[in-house]
Amino acid sequence: MKSKLLVASALFLAGCQLSNTTVDTSQPEQNQPADAATTQTGSNATAKQTDAVSKPVVKALTPQQQENVWDRITMQLSLEVPDEDRVEYYRKWYLRHPTHLKTVAERAEPFLFLITEKVEERGFPLELAMLPIVESSFDQFAYSHGRAAGLWQITPPTGRTFGLEQNWWYDGRRDVVKSTDAALDLLDYLQKKFDGDWLHALAAYNTGEGRVFRAIRNNKAEGKSTEFWALKLPRETSDYVPKLLAVADVISNADEYGIEIPAIANKQVVELVEPGVQMDIGLAAKYAGMDVKALQRLNPAYNQWATAPSGTNHFLLPLENAARFNEQFTANNNQGMNLIRYEIQPGDTLSQLAEKHNTRTDLIMKANNMESTALRAGRHLMIPVAMQDGSALASARTTQQTSHGTGHRVEYVIQSGDSLWTIARKHGVSIDQITRWNGISRNTTLRAGKTLTLWQKGSAASQQASNSEGIIRTISYSVRSGDSLSTIASRYKVRVSDLVKWNNLDTSKYLRPGQKLTLHIDVTKVSA
User: What is the pLDDT of residues 46-73, one digit of tens each?
Assistant: First the structure.
């Protein structure tokens, strides 16, 4: 009998240690007469107790009950991973660059649970929760040569179509909550247009529905298959879907592939607070008990030192900070702006005062219920100004980069003919630094169009970052017919002299269509 109990205990403990399971040791009630139950004595009763213990009820955990949100996602993947060369290429790429996925996981940590819940609510394939890995590597401030911005890389017209505000104050394409809803709305629209074919929908998300429909029609006309893998699409789009399937496969089978993906808690970690008034970013951080830089990492959509006078003004905050914000906001009578009382001097104008105090004319007028811009010396104005002399948010912007290097971070787009030696020489860094920052070897084949992370001190880009106090991203721009330096500079809110300096241009020569230019863009300016 003692040996039976030892075996039963071992089985019980083994059952408790099963991964992704729970053990329910409670037993159903016995539907037997009371006298029968009480007459069981000695070895018979002990045997029944042993049987009860040795047969635990094992319940598998649901995806929503997992501790790690990556497990929650990978348990619900539904898109087939085919035996395709393009999938294999990107699978090998991710496996050769495990530091990339670690960086992605660090960036995704505050947002992945939120995104996963939104994807689940719509009943979409959970691969879509990983789409920001392909689109932006979960860089909230990512910006492309096609003017796409944010985690989901949404272009200005698409953003407006799906309700994302874009103005001097705010760019909804970088608002994690709003842009996720907009991206999923777009994907929902596309999958319906393509009769539920998610690979076609994903391709259209990248290149536009018209191009995918044309590729399908062309294949039909030629009697060819119309599945995604048979379509003739731009190279970027042909790689886009395989890249998503490959990264989903790698993360899903990380143990088998021998790589470690940092765990992300499968629980809510952030919460939206909505003050309902225009809010100084520095004041919001003070209410929340947070550093301004930490607040902006969660709220990358705000371009200026305050939220807009009207429109979106919410903040995504860690749960404990959200509670503190609400308490402090109420305790301070719902004050959202920092105001100073200014005595008007002879010769003052509203535009001069707005510039001096890093604010806008319309805000000063609104704060003082003014109908005219006329000023009278000796009277007083209430002027909304940024806390810390307007430097809090600017300071946060210049230090938003996190990686392995020091100085200013640059995303360099590899050009045809580039080598590690030419890139290192051009940017004043060493080959060893480039390989370390990007987790690659000296023998890695560079592919045109892919990006490398570089860190520079005293470069043109870092100098611009210092001057503009903005968030700088480097893009490669392909000159179009009719382009001039002035039109390009105007489009991306940079100076012609900077374009010339960054690209060593001879101003006596015309730009050529197809010519590649390197631009260092302040993403908080181009969104307006």
Answer: 444 555 455 566 678 999 999 999 999 9
Task: Indicate left, alpha or beta for 225 from its phi (over 0: left) and psi (-120 to 50: alpha).
Answer: beta
274 is catalytic: no
Q: How far apart are CA 247 and CA 128, in angstroms?
A: 11
Residue 323 DSSP symbol: H
Q: Is 525 within 8 Å of 470 (Cβ atoms)?
A: yes
Give tens-digit pLDDT for 293-322: 899 999 999 988 888 877 889 999 999 999
* Burial grade of 309 (CB within 10 A; 0-12, 13-18, 19 or more): middle
Catalytically annotated residue among 135, 209, 320, 355: 135
Contact 184, 131 (CB under 8 A): no
- Max Cα–Cα distance, the chain, nearest Å: 108
Paired sense of beta strands 57-60 and 380-385, if any: unpaired
How far apart are the C-alpha atoms of 1 and 50, rounded to whole Å?
9
Where do the H-state alpha helices sit in 150-269? Answer: 156-161, 176-193, 198-207, 209-221, 235-252, 254-257
Q: Is the dihedral of CA 385, 391, 397, 400 positive or negative?
A: negative
- Return the ∠ at Cα 525 (arms to 523 and 526), rounded to 5°: 70
Q: In whole angstroms, what is the distance from residue 63 CA to residue 171 CA?
A: 34
Query: CA 255, 260, 261, 265 torsion: positive or negative?
Result: positive
DSSP-derived pairing of the beta strands 408-413 and 380-385: unpaired
306 strand-pairing partners: 280
DSSP string of 369-400, one letter each residue: T-SS----TT-EEEEEE-GGGGHHHHHHHTT-
Report the mean per-residue pLDDT for the chain: 83
| Residues 281, 397: Cα–Cα separation, whole Å | 12
Distance CA 419, CA 518 (A): 17
One-letter amino acid at 383 equals I
Q: Partners of 23 in the beta sheet?
A: 58
Distance (Å, rounded) from C-alpha 157 to C-alpha 284? Answer: 30
Burial of residue 164, with CB atoms counted within 10 A of its CB: 0-12 exposed, 13-18 middle, 19 or more buried: buried
Tokens 């971070």 -> residue: 409
Q: Look up the pTM and report it.
A: 0.70
As a whole number of angstroms, the distance between CA 413 and CA 521 comes to 14
Q: How far apart are CA 260 and CA 101, in angstroms?
A: 9
